[in-house]
Amino acid sequence: MTTENPGKPEIDTTVPHSARIWNYWLGGKDNFPVDREAGDKYAETFPGIFDMARASREYIGRAVTFLAAERGVRQFLDIGTGLPTENNTHQVAQRAAPESRIVYVDNDPLVLGHARALLTSRPEGATFYLDADLEEPEKILEQVTELLDFSQPVALMLMGILGHIRDYEKVTAIVGRLLQALPPGSYLAVYDGTATDPDLLKAQEDYDDTGAEPYRLRSPEQLTALFTGLELEEPGVVPITHWHPEPSPLPPLEVNAYGGVARKP
Predict the structure, then answer these.
(1) Is 117:131 a contact under the CB 8 Å cutoff?
(2) Checking DSSP bridges between strand 101-106 and strand 126-131, what pairing results, if any?
(3) Cα–Cα dist 137/174, whole Å
(4) Distance (Å, whole) CA 172 – CA 103
(5) pLDDT tens per residue across span 53-74
(6) At CB < 8 A and 24+ separation, what contacts does 147-150 make?
(7) Which CATH number does the domain 18-263 belong to among 3.40.50.10330, 3.40.640.10, 3.40.50.150, 3.40.50.1100?
(8) What is the rounded distance in angstroms from the CA atom of residue 156 to the CA atom of residue 63?
């Protein structure tokens, strides 16, 4: 196991922080009053954010389980992992396949401060953490090729991270570059919040105005376009609660986040 730049991070508790707010919405404890205040203000405009946060976490678990248990993937590149909670990628993957190798990538000093919590692994597998930025795919690839075997399939996970890049053309270029480096048989797994509800858009605009790092919500069509040239798994790019839902007598909860999983031919 390894980590990069394991110094003590400088954490600003006077400005709301997206990772800490998300942690609050998920019921975690790694947040401060400024984050809870911002999270509650967001929820006043868009009360569904708590359900959306939980649904997003559950979707990640189902996608990783699907890839490890049903598609035989044993290597995962999880970029923009955020703060650790329950059922992190390495835990889910190694539950299905103990020999799985996971590389987490994030450039956030707060997440870096929790690297030790992420750097746990079943003895049969391995878990690594890289301090790198999604906007620098070459740097990510240079480091990750030392940790994963690029002659074998890799699952590239971009979960709730792409909105941090405001230019959509830059998003497509970054995703394309990362996919280009992966071998055939690899997978792309994505989810993101979508601009499908005016209250969600208003809540996000108000949040961006606080001085916190802004986030760009996109259309389902824009997310679907990221899978161009790949073989989408059923049911395609859909609301995340409709993607391989757990059996239930109740219909899936409707949320404003879409996701999908696809194979590189």
Answers:
(1) no
(2) parallel
(3) 6
(4) 22
(5) 999 999 999 999 999 999 999 9
(6) 147/2, 147/101, 147/103, 148/75, 148/77, 148/101, 148/103, 149/75, 150/181, 150/182, 150/183
(7) 3.40.50.150
(8) 11
What six digits make up the tokens of 113?
């401060």
pTM to 2 decimal places? 0.91
Tokens representing 5 are: 């730049």
Burial class (CB in 10 A: 0-12, 13-18, 19+), 227: buried
CA separation for the pair 206, 32 (Å, rounded): 19
pLDDT digits (tens, 9 = 90+) for 19-62: 889 989 998 888 899 999 999 999 999 999 999 999 999 999 99
